[in-house]
């Protein structure tokens, strides 16, 4: 190649890179602004907030950011993560009794064992410290230690799930595997929520929470989890309140879950824009 042609080739490559660097990024709509999701949300009553983190693209999508809701039993994920972190810092594994408490609290959502687990974790001081380390700046602990009334946002629940799903965070591989294992074996009658619409062989690890709120009327119904498989890997949190019944809240969450699953179908398998 002559010096002139070589110089021209270098100039062309440089121009292409410069063009790519200055070009506007392709807009990413996300799953909460698709036509199907917008239409579905219009049909639902009560308060809804949600967040999804797509591990493949590293993008976070939030529906109604900053809206805080009571945690109900999804708080047990945070409680167990705190206990695992505390034991890890001490260089010890969970005791047999602690493992049994964790199993009942997560798999069966047993509130008595959840309270005992809270005690083992160190209560509000330890949970607050763990949350601060995890960057959960939008979670407020109930001063009286009523963990079901902890206030959180969907975004903060994604921050918590990232500690379980991704390596290099606060929890080691063994701790993450243990908690995710429990969340993958939820009792059959409680395996609803963010698992809706997910097709085998994809796997789901989740935790649900529900609570009648007498002071405000209606139900608090929440679901958080991890979905992995069939070309999708994402974390999802949906929090709802003011639901006329527990089943209504669950239906809202499941409708959102089904549409998120569809929105993350890779572009090569369908026509039209994808959620990045």
Task: Characterise this structure.
With 276 residues, the protein is an alpha+beta fold. The protein has a single domain, classed as DD-peptidase/beta-lactamase superfamily (Beta-lactamase, 3-Layer(aba) Sandwich), CATH 3.40.710.10. The chain has helices at residues 3-22, 35-42, 75-89, 96-107, 111-121, 123-133, 154-165, 173-183, 246-263; strands at residues 47-54, 59-63, 68-70, 151-153, 203-212, 219-229, 232-243. The strands form 2 sheets. Strands 2-1-7-6-5 form a 5-stranded antiparallel beta sheet, with helices on both faces. Strands 3-4 form a two-stranded antiparallel sheet. A hairpin with a 2-residue loop joins β6 (219-229) and β7. α3 (75-89) packs parallel to α5 (111-121) and α3 crosses α6.
Strand order of the largest sheet: 2-1-7-6-5
Q: How many β-strands, per DSSP? A: 7
Order of helices and strands: HHEEEHHHHEHHEEEH
Instruction: Tell me what portion of residues adopts beta-strand conformation.
Output: 15-25%
Low-confidence stretches: 1-27
Please give the largest β-sheet: 5 strands, antiparallel
Determine and state the CATH class: Alpha Beta
CATH architecture: 3-Layer(aba) Sandwich
Q: What's the total helix number? A: 9
Provide a quick synopsis of the model.
This protein has helices spanning 3-22, 35-42, 75-89, 96-107, 111-121, 123-133, 154-165, 173-183, 246-263, and strands at residues 47-54, 59-63, 68-70, 151-153, 203-212, 219-229, 232-243. It has 276 residues and is of the alpha+beta class. Helix 2 (35-42) packs antiparallel against helix 9.
């Amino acid at each position: 190649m002559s010096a002139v042609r070589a110089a021209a080739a270098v100039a062309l490559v440089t121009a292409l890179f410069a063009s790519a660097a200055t070009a506007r990024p392709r807009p990413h709509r996300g799953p909460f602004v698709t036509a199907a999701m917008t239409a579905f949300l219009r049909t639902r009553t009560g308060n809804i907030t949600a967040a999804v983190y797509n591990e493949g693209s590293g993008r976070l999508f939030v529906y109604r950011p900053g809206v805080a809701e009571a945690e109900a039993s999804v708080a047990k994920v945070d409680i167990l993560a705190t206990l695992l972190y505390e034991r890890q810092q001490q260089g010890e594994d969970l005791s047999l009794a602690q493992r049994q408490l964790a199993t009942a609290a997560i798999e069966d959502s047993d509130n008595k064992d959840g309270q005992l687990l809270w005690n083992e974790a160190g209560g509000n001081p330890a949970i607050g410290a763990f949350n601060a380390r995890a960057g959960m700046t939008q979670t407020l602990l109930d001063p009286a230690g009523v963990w079901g009334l902890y206030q959180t946002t969907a975004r903060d629940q994604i921050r918590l799930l990232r500690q379980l799903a991704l390596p290099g965070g606060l929890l080691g591989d063994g701790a993450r595997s243990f908690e995710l294992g429990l969340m993958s074996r939820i009792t059959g009658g409680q395996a609803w929520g963010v698992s809706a619409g997910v097709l085998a062989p994809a796997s789901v690890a989740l935790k649900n929470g529900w609570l009648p709120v007498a002071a405000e009327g209606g139900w608090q119904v929440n679901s958080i989890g991890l979905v992995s498989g069939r070309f999708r890997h994402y974390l999802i949190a949906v929090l709802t309140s003011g639901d006329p019944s527990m089943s209504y809240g669950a239906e809202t969450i499941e409708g959102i879950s089904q549409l998120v699953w569809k929105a993350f179908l890779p572009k090569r398998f369908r026509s039209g824009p994808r959620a990045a």
